[in-house]
Amino acid sequence: MRLPSALPPRVRRLLVHPAAALPGHEDERRHGGGGLPALRRRGRRDHNTERTGDGRDAVSGDDTAGDDTATDQDHPATRLPADEPVLEAVNVTKHFPVRGGLRRRGGPRRVVHAVENVSLRLYAGRITALVGESGSGKSTLARLLAQLYPLTGGEVRLHGVAVPTPRGRAFREYVSKVQLILQDPFGSFNPVATIASTLKRAVAIHQPAKRGAEQQAVIDGLLAQINLVPQRQFTEKYPHELSGGQLQRVSIARALAASPEVFLADEPVSSLDVSIRLGILNLLRRLTEERNVAMLYVTHDIASARYFAADTAVMYAGEIVETGPSEAVTQQAAHPYTQLLIASAPDPSRAGGDRVRDIGQPPSLIDPPAGCRFHPRCPYAMERCKTDVPESFEISAGHAAKCWLYADDPEARAKRADNARTVADLTAPAPSA
């Protein structure tokens, strides 16, 4: 049975193994996923699978080019971030009003607490993954950074300067420097405009001095950068005549026309076939390094976050609950929700994972739980979790989690010991056959 590839891992797991949702479930068979390496042992990644189809990439643009494949030594996680972030979210909050329905006379207006007091930093030449289930607020945060929605609270800063009001030259400069790459490429193109017309418009807006032959040279250069060559084979086509992978490459080229400093990639490969996802991710990584841009990679797939990003932030119910280097977050997950995401990602090389069970559903963001928003689903929940918003506790250098498990009190220490066994299970290799 083929499952929709855009479903979150937790949902796919329940569809394949319905017993995983039952309290008495003890032994679940794991199956390997296609297209991306599993969570364990990046150093043993099969580079041959990354290079599949490189002989025809120049024509189709759908498969991974050999030049796009990076080694472990080239991985951005091996480099330290710059001192100052390019883009920064500071206590960003977004509430959407609930329209319709009953409201008590004189009562407060009901809102959806989509994003709540989120702070995040993006650094030049470095990729940060934003991971979470569907509905956790990831895409909303990306759109707030792109200034598609007004903020309810907090502020967004580019090079330390708050974003100006949505008008005037300063704001236009901001939106050209911060480019959003959407999940569905077919929904972001004019269906009656050719690829050449779309790219000409982008170049005319962001590079108005380029005209005629110079403009065409820029377009040819953009298509060459995204491995769509020969260019004339693609420029006169309409969006529906390209595959999903080819059109997503064109959307990346359109963003490159603005010479951006930040990419906001909102699940750029979730709607694509698994056979071509790696090519798009490697292309984005190469462009990030060559152009020294900062990137936010939004995904529900924590396995791809570890492979692709230097840093990972985990988001749940509108809040960021864990941040740190991707290796630390995925191999030494501190927050119980992060552990749930890891356990939901298929990994045939992992022995454990059955200790982590999903005991509930995400909360309503119209009436979110008090205290820690994860406490109704958390197997380690304590009384203070139901009333007090968790502080951020440092787990290791650069690795932090908002969870009362790491408070310095006897109950937390006892729960933390049990949680440590869960982490050990998640990272234990499967026994040899």
TrEMBL record:
It holds the Pfam family oligo_HPY. It comes from the Bacteria. Gene3D superfamilies: P-loop containing nucleotide triphosphate hydrolases. GO terms for molecular function: ATP binding; ATP hydrolysis activity. GO terms for biological process: peptide transport; transmembrane transport. Keywords: ATP-binding, Nucleotide-binding, Transport. Residues 46-59 have a biased composition (Basic and acidic residues). Residues 18-86, 414-433 are annotated as: Disordered. Residues 87-342 form the ABC transporter domain. The keyword ATP-binding applies. NCBIfam families: oligo_HPY. This is ABC transporter ATP-binding protein. It comes from Actinacidiphila oryziradicis. The lineage of its organism: Bacteria, Bacillati, Actinomycetota, Actinomycetes, Kitasatosporales.
